[in-house]
Fold this sequence. Notes:
By secondary structure, the chain is an alpha+beta fold. The protein has helices at 4-26, 60-63, 69-108, 114-150, 160-191, and strands spanning 31-35, 38-42, 46-51, 54-59, 156-157. It has one domain.
Amino acid sequence: MASKTHVSAxxxxxxxxxxxxxxxxxxPGWLVINIGENSIGIGLWSIESCVKEDCISITMxxxxxEPGQRMASASLSWKEYQVEATLSLIGxxxxxxxxxxQTIVICVSKVNTTNSINTLAVLGASTSIGSALIGxxxxxxxxxxxxxxxxxxxVISAPYALIIFALGSFVSIWVGGIEFFLRGMxxxxxxxxxxxxxxxxx
Length: 202
């Protein structure tokens, strides 16, 4: 069985992944355009426009409120990004809840709860990996858009919020890998025959 230290570390790393994804989720930096002293930061939910140190922010709902087929198409595409990023964030949250539950069971249980611990571990790891994969999909789609825009707008800067969200997804898939590795180690340990040397006559 994995030690308390190992599972607690997994919960801590999952927490880091969740924080990174939340930060990237809310910041207006999925697409950043700098023109001289002016800058425009576009996030999943808002756009921030700055002239020198004066900045204004509007929501994406306000942006896509304008009528027209092109705006409707852009709105639909952006809503897809929002849905995918939200699903990834929900997955990261569920993962940390499941891994925390696993840690609590290990710490407080006084009976054999191996099956419950393994179930929570597998669910937590699977949810973490699923969250990461969805995160990679939305990051990849957005990165593709940015690369295409760079041919037209050479003033595009590093999308800091997108990078932060991608780091969170990377950490999430790492957490899932660690949990599956620990489950494998525990299974091998449980299958190793135990010899009681005290009962062997000398």
